[in-house]
Amino acid sequence: MAQRKTKTKELDALLDAIDAAGNAEEFEVEGHKIAVSNLNKVLWPGTADHEPVTKRDYIRYLVQVSEYLLPHLKDRPLTLIRYPNGVEGKKFFQKHWEHKKPEFVDTIMLYSEHSKSDGEFITCSNVATLVWLGQLADLELHTTHTRTNPEPDGKKLGTTFTGSVANIDSSLMNYPDFVVLDLDPYMYSGKEKKGEEPELHKEGFEKTCEIAAALKENLDKLNVEAFVKTSGRTGLHIYVPIVRNIEYDMVRSIAEVIGRHLLKQHPKEVTMEWSVSKRTGKIFFDHNMNGRGKTLPSPYSARNSVEATISTPVDWKELPKIYPTDFTIWNVPKRLEKKGDIWSDILEHKNNMEKLKKTTE
DNA sequence: TACAGGG
DNA sequence: CCCTGTAACAGCTTT
DNA sequence: AAAGCT
Q: Among the four residues A110, A185, A259, A306, which has the most C-beta atoms within 10 Å?
């Protein structure tokens, strides 16, 4: 297994223990005991391109990437998507943990309009929790686009997340710290069964990379930092870090404006159509994942799908460079002062939205 | 996967 | 004891 | 209203 060294001796020792373990074992992680089972169970079946990936491989992988992954999970309520019988078996979503939970697992209370009450949500703030999530066969880690920590840019926002929707609305949980621009190829290989999503194939992924590169270039020219990353199975995400001044609704409509702009630039290659048949042969731009919904965390927020990093081949040599996800603060109000292109559209849209809000109030 | 509940 | 069920979910678009 | 889609 390549690249198994991490920054710390403790994690390296844990990796060794994972390698040496039998099918079931108890690990010591950061001073906590974690029981794991079925380490030899295949979670991703083997293909022509890769060997089968077992639960052992998966947990090892989580430990290896923990120093990169944890900073992005920290302070963000989670939605788990669990696949106890592997990616081809039945999956289920989970936000709450009703059972006994280990003492190292942190949670946060949030109000949900759906249940009309406060609920306890899981967060992941340490390696032990990451291993525990691996044991639960949680193959997808979805987070809110918001952080519960006000530092460094959210000090004016509310820190009460319980009691009412109004409390959520005025709190940090209504102010995302990034925009996500989602690009998915609807280019079929021809081997898909009827009604199936397009499978991953080279031409579709290449085209997505081209469009993503064009979009990133737009943003680069405006001095807006953006980061391209593989997403679900076949597509790419572009993350634009923002200062927390804009509510979910506004972030969503800004993503839409960016999409319309991209669509104008590449009408033959990009689509924002609802119906799948009309998307065929094009790259689908989805702005809706920037929305919030009445319950948190929003299930749309697929930010840390580990499945993606395993199933998407990023090493096709001739493809445009894929940028690692990284986050720095992009100051929206300052950038919005810039004229031209996308930003005049966004600025106009933002003003219109605010006018609309005033007239409907 | 982990657990509760019913037969 | 074994078997089965449950663990989320809202909003948007189109017909 | 219902179904399709993420």
A: A185
A42's tokens: 């295949």
Q: How far is the CA of A286 from the C1' of D5 (A)?
A: 11
Q: Which of A95-99, A132-136, A191-195 has the highest mean pLDDT?
A: A132-136
What is the torsion angle, in degrees rounded to the nearest 10, for the CA atoms of residue A253, residue A68, residue A317 and residue A286?
A: -20
Nearest amino-acid residue to C7, taking CA and C1': A94
For C12, nearest residue by CA–C1' is A288
CA distance A198 to A187: 6
In this complex, the answer to whether residue A92 has its CB under 7 A from any atom of chain C, a nucleic strand, is: yes
pLDDT of residue A41 exceeding 60, the answer is yes
- Annotate A135-204 with DSSP letters as a single string: HTTEEEEEE-SS-S--TTT-TTSB---SS-HHHHHTBGGGS-SEEEEEEEE----S-SPTTPPPPP-HHH
Mean local confidence (pLDDT), A146-158:
90
What mean pLDDT comes out for the span A25-46?
93
pTM of the model: 0.84
Do A348 and A238 contact (CB within 8 A), yes or no?
no
For nucleotide C9, give the residue with the nearest CA to its C1'.
A299
Q: What is the ipTM of this complex?
A: 0.88
A314, pLDDT greater than 90: no
